[in-house]
C-alpha cells in the first residue's frame, strides 16, 4: 500500500501560506487580506449590548438617568432623556451655567445644582400622578404643589436635596436626529444624548417634564430657583409654604442643629380670617404641605398664584377628595398599607362625570375602588355620578372621612341612637347612609370630627355646605377611640414620619 501523504501535503501547504503571509505583512495586499479575516466591526461594537434591551427597551436607570444625577430622585419609567445641564457648584468666582438652577442668594455657600429634561409618550396626568405618589411615599417633604393647570410644578425636599419637577403640557414636536449635530463633532464631545441609541427623525406627541435639583452640604437644603420654573419661592409674594424654620426671605437657612426641623407656616396670608378655633389646625396642615396651593375653581385662574387660602370659602367635593387622600397618605407616609392608592388609567371610570381626562380622576377613582366613597363598586348602583364641582355637605364629609378613621366597617346606626348620643335636634334630616358615620364619630370623644370642625352644637345641619377651614380641620387627625395620629404629632416627630399609632391627647 502507498503511504498516506495527506499529512505531509497539509503541512507543506501551511508552511507555504505562512511564508506568503510573512512576506506581505507590511504590504497593502497583506492589509487587505488581514481585514478580510477580521471580525465584523459592527458585531464587535455591539457586544457590550448583548442581552440588553435596545432602543425604547432600555431601563430608566441605564438610559434615562444622567451619570451625575442623584440616585434618590425617581425617574418616570416610560420616558426618554432629552437634555442635561451639567452639575455645577456656583461660587462668586464662577458664574452659574446657563439654564441651570441657581441659588436663591449670592452667598458663597457651595451647592451642586443641575437640570435634566425628559419626554414621555404618556399623558401629563400620568407623569404627575407618578411623581406625587413617589414623593409622598419615599420620604420627601412636599414644599409646594401647583397641579391644577399646566405646567404643573412639584417642589419637594429630602435631607439636603431639593427638587423642582415641572410637567408641561402634551405637545407635538420634531425629535432631533444625528444630522442635527455639527459635522466636526467628535465622539468625545459632550452631548445631552443619554445613550448611543439612535433617535428617529419624526414628529412625536409627548409630555415634556424637567427636574431641577440643588444639593447643599452642612445645612438644610435651601430653596433653589429655576428661572424657567413657575413654582413660587420663599420671600416671593406668591410663595405658599411651608418654609423651614430659620429660613430668610431670600431662601437661605441657618445651619442644621440637633433640634428637629419644623416648618414655618408662611405663605398663606389670610389664615387669620379663619375661626380662631381652627387656625392651629390649618397651620399644622400647611406645614405638612397638605393644603392645596390654589383653588380648583377655573373661574379664578387669574388668582391661582395668590397666597389666599380662603378659609371661609365653600369647598367642592373634588377638592375634599383630593385633600382627603393627600392628608391620609402624608400622615401614613411610612406605611403603604394605610395609604389610599390612586386609581389607574387602565380601569373603567366608576363615575360618568369623572372621565380619565379629569385632573382628579386618579384620586376619585382610587377612593371609589377602595370603597371609601359610595359608588356602584360598593353596591350603590344608583350612584353613577360624583358631581365633582358640587359643594361638599356636612353629612357627606363625615361619610367619606370616617372609614379612614375607623379602618373597619361602620357600625349599624339608628335615628334614636344618634339623638341619644349627639342630641341633634335635626337628626331626622340626616341621610340614613350617613347616620352610621355620624354615630361612629361620636366614639372619638373630643377628637371627633364634628367637635373639631363645628364645636359644640345641637344642630348638625347635615345639608349645609362645608367651608375650607372646616374641611381642613377634619383632616388634622386620623384615628378612632384615642388610637390615631395627628398632624401635630407628625410635625413633632424627629424623623418627620410616623412611627406607630398611639393614643393622642385631646
From TrEMBL:
Keyword Signal included in the entry's annotation: yes
Keyword list, A-Z: Signal
First and last residue of the signal peptide: 1-25
Record's compositionally biased regions (Polar residues): 110-119
Keyword Signal carried by entry: yes
Residue ranges of the region described as Disordered: 45-66, 88-119, 174-205, 224-271
Pfam family, one: SLH
Regions annotated as coiled coil: none
InterPro entries: SLH_dom (IPR001119)
The SLH domain, residue ranges: 265-338, 347-415
Composition-biased stretches (Low complexity): 88-109, 185-205, 246-263
PANTHER family tied to this protein: GPI-ANCHORED ADHESIN-LIKE PROTEIN
Protein name according to UniProt: S-layer homology domain-containing protein
Phylogenetic classification of the source organism: Bacteria, Bacillati, Cyanobacteriota, Cyanophyceae, Leptolyngbyales
Amino acid at each position: 500500500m502507498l503511504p498516506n501523504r495527506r499529512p505531509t501535503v497539509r503541512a507543506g501547504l501551511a508552511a507555504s501560506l505562512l511564508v506568503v503571509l510573512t512576506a506581505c505583512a507590511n504590504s497593502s495586499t497583506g492589509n487587505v487580506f488581514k481585514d478580510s479575516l477580521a471580525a465584523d466591526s459592527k458585531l464587535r461594537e455591539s457586544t457590550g449590548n448583548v442581552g440588553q434591551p435596545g432602543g425604547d427597551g432600555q431601563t430608566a436607570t441605564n438610559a434615562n438617568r444622567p451619570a451625575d444625577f442623584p440616585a434618590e430622585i425617581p425617574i418616570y419609567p416610560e420616558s426618554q432623556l432629552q437634555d442635561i445641564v451639567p452639575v455645577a457648584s456656583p461660587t462668586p468666582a464662577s458664574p452659574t451655567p446657563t439654564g441651570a438652577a441657581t441659588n436663591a442668594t449670592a452667598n458663597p455657600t457651595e451647592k451642586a445644582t443641575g437640570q435634566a429634561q425628559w419626554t414621555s409618550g404618556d399623558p401629563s396626568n400620568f407623569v404627575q400622578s407618578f411623581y406625587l405618589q413617589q414623593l409622598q411615599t419615599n420620604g420627601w417633604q412636599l414644599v409646594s404643589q401647583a397641579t391644577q393647570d399646566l405646567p404643573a410644578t412639584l417642589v419637594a425636599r429630602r435631607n439636603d436635596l431639593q427638587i423642582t419637577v415641572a410637567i408641561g403640557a402634551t405637545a407635538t414636536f420634531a425629535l432631533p436626529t444625528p444630522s442635527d449635530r455639527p459635522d466636526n463633532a467628535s465622539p468625545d464631545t459632550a452631548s445631552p444624548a443619554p445613550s448611543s441609541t439612535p433617535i428617529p427623525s419624526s414628529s412625536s406627541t409627548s409630555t415634556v417634564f424637567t427636574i431641577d435639583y440643588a444639593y447643599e452640604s452642612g445645612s438644610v437644603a435651601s430653596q433653589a430657583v429655576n428661572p424657567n420654573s413657575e413654582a413660587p419661592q420663599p420671600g416671593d409674594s406668591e410663595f405658599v409654604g411651608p418654609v423651614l424654620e430659620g429660613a430668610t426671605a431670600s431662601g437661605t437657612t441657618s445651619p442644621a442643629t440637633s433640634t428637629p426641623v419644623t416648618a414655618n407656616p408662611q405663605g398663606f396670608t389670610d389664615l387669620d380670617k379663619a375661626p380662631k378655633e381652627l387656625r392651629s389646625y390649618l397651620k399644622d396642615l400647611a406645614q405638612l404641605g397638605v393644603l392645596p396651593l390654589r383653588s380648583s375653581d377655573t373661574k379664578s385662574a387669574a388668582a391661582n398664584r395668590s397666597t389666599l387660602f380662603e378659609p371661609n370659602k365653600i369647598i367642592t367635593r373634588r377638592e375634599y377628595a383630593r385633600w382627603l387622600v393627600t392628608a391620609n397618605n402624608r400622615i401614613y407616609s411610612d406605611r403603604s398599607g394605610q395609604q389610599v392608592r390612586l386609581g389607574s388609567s387602565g380601569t373603567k371610570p366608576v363615575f360618568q362625570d369623572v372621565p380619565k381626562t379629569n385632573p382628579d380622576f386618579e384620586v376619585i377613582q382610587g377612593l371609589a375602588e377602595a370603597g371609601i366613597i359610595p359608588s356602584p363598586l360598593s353596591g350603590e348602583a344608583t350612584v353613577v355620578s360624583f358631581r365633582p364641582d358640587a359643594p361638599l355637605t356636612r353629612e357627606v364629609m363625615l361619610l367619606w372621612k370616617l372609614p379612614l378613621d375607623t379602618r373597619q366597617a361602620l357600625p349599624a346606626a339608628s335615628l334614636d341612637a344618634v339623638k341619644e348620643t349627639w342630641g341633634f335636634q335635626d337628626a331626622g334630616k340626616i341621610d340614613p347612609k350617613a347616620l352610621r358615620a355620624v354615630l361612629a364619630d361620636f366614639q372619638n370623644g373630643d377628637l371627633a370630627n364634628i367637635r373639631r370642625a363645628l364645636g359644640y352644637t345641637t344642630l348638625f345641619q347635615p345639608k349645609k355646605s362645608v367651608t375650607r377651614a372646616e374641611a381642613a380641620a377634619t383632616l388634622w387627625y386620623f384615628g378612632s377611640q384615642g388610637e390615631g395620629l395627628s398632624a401635630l404629632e407628625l410635625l413633632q416627630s424627629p424623623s418627620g414620619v410616623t412611627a406607630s399609632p398611639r393614643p393622642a391627647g385631646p
